[in-house]
């Protein structure tokens, strides 16, 4: 999976980049066909919650997106990763349910008898 990390009004350090890589890499547990992930980390000094983590993940047939505002950048990354993980998990379960609703092949013939 290719991960692009950009920062707006923020200096991206290696620990932040590694943290984002680690958190987005967790999505591979649920969905191994992720093509590309784009993370935009922003610092907004004029807002109360000054840090924003915005991540978009492209997978075949679906795009997952989440955005979180938080005072702490690491907490924002954690929360946005949790949101994406929930979206991917839900999507994966939906796909599995659809496959199980319409049995095909020999199993469908055996059940019909």
Automatic annotation (TrEMBL):
A GO biological-process term: negative regulation of translational elongation
Molecular function GO labels: ribosomal small subunit binding
Keywords: Translation regulation
Listed GO CC annotations: cytosolic small ribosomal subunit
Pfam family, one: Ribosomal_S30AE
Stretches the record annotates as Disordered: 94-113
Subunit structure: Associates exclusively with 100S ribosomes, which are dimers of 70S ribosomes.
Protein name: Ribosome hibernation promoting factor
Biological source species: Acidithiobacillus ferrianus
């Amino acid at each position: 999976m290719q991960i692009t990390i950009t920062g707006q009004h923020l200096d991206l350090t290696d620990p932040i980049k590694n943290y984002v890589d680690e958190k987005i890499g967790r999505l591979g547990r649920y969905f191994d066909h992720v093509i590309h992930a784009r993370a935009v980390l922003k610092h907004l000094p004029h807002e109360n919650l000054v840090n924003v983590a915005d991540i978009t993940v492209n997978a075949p047939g679906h795009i997952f997106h989440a955005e979180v505002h938080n005072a702490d950048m690491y907490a924002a990354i954690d929360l946005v990763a949790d949101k994406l993980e929930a979206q991917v998990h839900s999507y994966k379960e939906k796909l599995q349910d659809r496959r199980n609703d319409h049995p095909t092949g020999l199993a469908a013939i055996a059940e019909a008898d």
